[in-house]
Hints:
mainly alpha, 5 helices, GtrA_DPMS_TM
Amino acid sequence: MSRQFLTFLLTGGTAAAVNFGSRVLYNQWTSFSTAVVLAYLTGMITAFILSRLFVFSDSQQAVHKSAMFFVLVNLVAILQTFLISVGLAYYVLPALGVTLLVPEIAHAIGVVVPVFTSYLGHKRWSFR
């Protein structure tokens, strides 16, 4: 693994923690599915700032162009996160008999899945 990918994992882990933690807060006032989307947006803003500062600091691309591609890459990732989180929470985990911490388990798995596709997309388009 490259140093850049390891730094991406660290900054992504921080953004994922922000995502996960904010979902718990948002879920106090909204439905689970709405909270997942709001939390993803909160984590995405965190990820953009950290990625630009620490992972792809040598990017020559203008910030507004990086932000545009960052959003596009994350549209794919949010779709992955949403489908996996909601699918697990409403269908898979209940079918397996899981009753404790279902939203937390489902969302944690949903957040982890797009790590690799996001890295490739950001490296190739967002911060080239």
